[in-house]
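Morning. Coffee machine broken again, so started the prediction first thing and wrote up yesterday's gels while waiting. Chain of 373 residues, entered below exactly as on the submission form.
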Amino acid sequence: MKIKAAVVDEKGADFKIRDDVELAPMGPDDLQVHMVASGICHSDEALRIGDAVIGYPIVLGHEGSGIVEKVGPEVTQFKPGDHVVLSFYACGNCKNCLKGIPTQCLNYAHNNLSGTRPDGSAHFTENGKPVADMFDQSSFTTTTVVRERNAVKVDKDLDLRKLGPLGCGYVTGSGTVLNTLKPKPGDTIAVTGTGAVGLAAMMAGKISGCTKVIAIDIVDSRLELAKELGATDVVNSKTEDPVAAVKKLTGGLGVDWAVDTTGVKAVMEDTIQMLAQGGTTATIAVTPHHIDVDTWNDLCVNDKKIVGVNMGDSIPQIDVPRLIEFYKQGMFDFDKTEKFYQFDQINEANADSRSGKTIKPVLIIDKDYVPGK
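Came back before lunch.
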């Protein structure tokens, strides 16, 4: 079937919405999903500009939400009419998937970042030529086909327009704290970068009972929002030394945990220096930059640790509903970071994301959708 999709034709090109993209037919364990909305993530931008490469032309988008239209004969967990949030695809059969760590799926790169569907077929074509996909999802479309494992069922009384980013940005930041670092009540945490991922990590630190939740950024308005969402302290690293500020706020000790979401070399290195002895920093940005580490003083003598985390070590079918429950209880107000744009405003929305003007742009793909219906 032909659908409307936002296509990037070559490295660095703008999105072009076209209505002649052919969607692949459904497989036995597939869902056909009518897209309601999709968040724009910095990972989409990394692929658009070529910092991470799948291939071109490509249909991006991996924070989709929508309504199931059809299901394949082997689908057991979904039916037409179900409301879903879309996330990454894990095979479910490899050693790591069977251990319950789908973000470490041995086939993760092939399934999500090869530009094709997991079986190697083209997800989309245009004029008979393959168009690459992302996350076996490509949510910058009016309709998509995904595997059953891509989808998370959500209650129909929730506003689907808000929920898509739970499938990547919010689950990545929160999962890094809740699933990987696992701070205890009374611990301290610092988060560098207060975009969607950073604010999610910060809120998760608050939920975990950290008594110091320090948000670090260079934009005062974002730091004000961080305080509203639960930061105990904020630091503008444009006007003060963030390492010195964190040490001062923690009685000279440093924090037990740090999360960097910026991917900036100097900032990532700062998170190591602001750690207390025995502390751990998680670097979770999609970035081409490398860091320098003092293996003797930092890693050995001070027993500090640096960890990488993919997608918050999450199991979307568990973590997304958990975040929704936190949201219902007023503990995870992720929607305060969002701003809606119409689908044909995708280039404006992406530019606002890139500049920092908007923390989490959300594209409204179905403008006729009514929440709760």
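The two ends are 26 Å apart (CA to CA). Going to sketch it on the whiteboard this afternoon.
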